[in-house]
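Incident log, support desk, overnight shift.

02:14 A customer reports that sequence design results differ from what the structure should imply. Their input is reproduced verbatim below. On-call engineer (initials T.W.) acknowledged and began investigating.
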């Protein structure tokens, strides 16, 4: 029995195919259209899922949509009426899309896919909860979902047991931890629903100077984690911006203009909202534990991508174990609704993969390309390459990395979710004090303050980080161990903000943030054997079981999907080598960028 889950029309649209309860394929539409955060109907992603499963659309038993548009439309209408006439501009801008698309989901699905069967709907936070619990390794667990807003809910909690999920309580719009964080994302000059992770990365450079102001004026945060926003300061209910003039007055000026210089003020604001968010997340987690009594916690929703907050819940919260859906944002709703149909609508039994294993297949659910397909592409463009024996790939790539070069790594199935996990990655040597600056400015074309994540062999994670658990999806931040840190110089003690960026802090400076933290990805042989073998080979050469891992893309572009995408990104940056399966490309051997003229268009910046 085949079920297709669809998420669309807000941001990060995606499709997922579940067959007899097994997740067969999942992908975001942006990877195919090359439009970052593409919200349009995921026709390409859906077609890929069907192809991966080897079925036609006629063989689908059900198609599910991840939220209920009529309920969301009700919320929009009530909000506009409540703020009329001040919300008229926002209302006029939103209505054409609703009247043309969002209210006609079954018709659109049938038209785009040529589908004639039933279409089922799940509520937004029910989809998040299902994406968190059903693929998890737990037979029973508490569930916590946090995001901007679904239909009415902005956060919810409940319990999962076997194939049943029960949501017990929710927080409703406009009172939202996710929208609060997005308001500060907007105010600090970054794009909402895209730049929140930049605020999180900027926070350690600042001081929490505005925490009392946020808690005293903007938000009434209760002990149980529930909150109420002071809507005097926000504009997202009725306007086209997140904040207003009262917000500007409270924080001493207008929002930072995008692409302008980031000042100490933005760093302090980022640190302050990050601290408030972490406190809210911790309070929510403690309340959920108190109400459910469960030892395990599953999380989803966009706020669950705040890996610093997740790390604090793991270290300071009451739960023994936590599991976070790697596609925690709206894309993961496609998985959630498909599994909801299988387990709840159809009443199918849930079986676990094993004591420690989830059913996300290490997040590697996207397209793969054969050796033949890659070779045909390279030959058709006249691209010079060297072909390696399969058993030599890891050793040769490890040698190149150990020599200080930057490598594009393109292997197997593409990742689902926002993180590159060793299938579509750009890799470097974490021991190099220059690697972070090099990769940010010359390869990623992004802000210099942005940190990079370490990929570490699972058996060695505790040797380098204060972490004793698995973190396969790069969703937990942990401190670098004290014995791996370097002592602070007298010069550094006099530095502030961004001045602290290029000071080496540990034996792996390229992945150590200014507060001695790191966003850790643990790698095991079972989850991603090729990536594991590469890190193991690097470990044998250098005695360091860690690599710098960042997503294979540049700023403003989605993670690469195809060999063509990878080659274009390789040639448009200062990457030194590209490894696609067994094919090794040396930048020095390449001529001008080869291919169609549309490859030469400038990348769209955030």
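02:41 Re-run completed on a clean worker. Output:
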């Amino acid at each position: 029995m085949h079920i297709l889950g669809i998420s669309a029309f807000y941001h990060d649209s995606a499709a997922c195919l579940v067959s007899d309860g097994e997740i067969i394929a999942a992908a975001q539409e942006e990877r195919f259209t090359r439009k970052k955060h593409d919200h349009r109907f995921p026709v390409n992603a859906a077609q890929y899922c069907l192809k991966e499963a080897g079925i036609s659309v006629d063989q689908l038993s059900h198609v599910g949509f991840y939220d209920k548009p009529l309920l969301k439309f009700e919320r929009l209408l009530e909000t506009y009426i409540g703020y009329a006439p001040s919300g008229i501009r926002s209302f006029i801008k939103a209505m054409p899309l609703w009247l043309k698309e969002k209210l006609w989901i079954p018709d659109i699905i049938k038209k785009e896919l040529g589908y004639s069967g039933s279409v089922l709907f799940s509520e937004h936070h029910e989809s998040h909860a299902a994406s968190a619990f059903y693929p998890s390794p737990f037979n029973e667990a508490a569930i916590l979902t946090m995001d901007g807003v679904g239909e009415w809910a902005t956060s919810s909690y409940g319990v999962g047991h076997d194939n049943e999920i029960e949501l017990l309580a929710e927080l409703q719009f406009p009172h939202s931890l996710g929208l609060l964080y997005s308001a500060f994302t907007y105010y600090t000059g970054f794009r909402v629903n895209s730049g929140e992770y930049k605020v999180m990365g900027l926070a350690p450079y600042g001081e929490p100077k505005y925490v009392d102001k946020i808690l005293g004026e903007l938000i009434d945060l209760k002990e149980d984690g529930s909150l109420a926003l002071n809507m005097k300061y926000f504009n997202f209910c009725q306007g086209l911006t997140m904040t207003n003039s009262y917000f500007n007055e409270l924080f001493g000026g207008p929002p930072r203009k995008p692409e302008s210089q980031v000042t100490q003020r933005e760093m302090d604001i980022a640190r302050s909202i990050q601290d408030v968010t972490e406190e809210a997340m911790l309070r929510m987690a403690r309340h959920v534990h108190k109400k459910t009594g469960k030892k395990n916690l599953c999380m989803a929703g966009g706020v669950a991508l705040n890996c610093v907050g997740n790390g604090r819940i793991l270290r300071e919260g009451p739960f023994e174990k936590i599991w976070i859906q790697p596609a925690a944002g709206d894309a993961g709703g496609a998985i959630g609704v498909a599994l909801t149909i299988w387990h709840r609508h159809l009443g199918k039994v849930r079986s676990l993969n094993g004591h420690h294993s989830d059913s996300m297949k290490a997040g590697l659910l996207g397209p793969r390309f054969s050796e033949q397909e890659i070779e045909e592409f390279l030959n058709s463009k006249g691209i010079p390459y060297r072909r390696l024996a399969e058993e030599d790939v890891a050793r040769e790539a490890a040698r190149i990395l150990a020599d200080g070069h930057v490598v594009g790594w393109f292997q197997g199935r593409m990742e689902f979710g926002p993180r590159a996990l060793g299938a579509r990655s750009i890799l470097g040597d974490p021991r190099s004090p220059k690697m972070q600056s090099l990769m940010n400015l010359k390869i990623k074309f992004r802000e210099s303050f942005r940190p990079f994540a370490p990929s570490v062999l699972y058996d060695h994670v505790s040797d380098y980080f204060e972490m004793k658990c698995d973190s396969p999806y790069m969703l937990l931040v942990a401190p670098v161990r004290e014995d791996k840190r370097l002592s602070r110089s007298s010069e550094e003690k006099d530095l502030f903000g961004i001045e602290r960026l290029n000071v080496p802090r540990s034996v792996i400076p390229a992945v150590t943030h200014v507060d001695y933290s790191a966003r850790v990805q643990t790698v095991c042989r079972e989850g991603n054997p090729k990536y594991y073998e590469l890190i193991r080979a690097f470990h044998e050469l250098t005695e360091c079981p860690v690599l710098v891992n960042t997503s294979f893309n540049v700023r403003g572009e989605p993670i690469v999907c195809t060999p063509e995408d990878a080659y274009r990104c390789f040639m448009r940056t200062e990457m030194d080598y590209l490894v696609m399966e067994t094919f090794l490309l040396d930048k020095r051997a390449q001529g001008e960028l080869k291919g169609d003229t549309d490859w030469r268009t400038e990348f769209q910046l955030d």
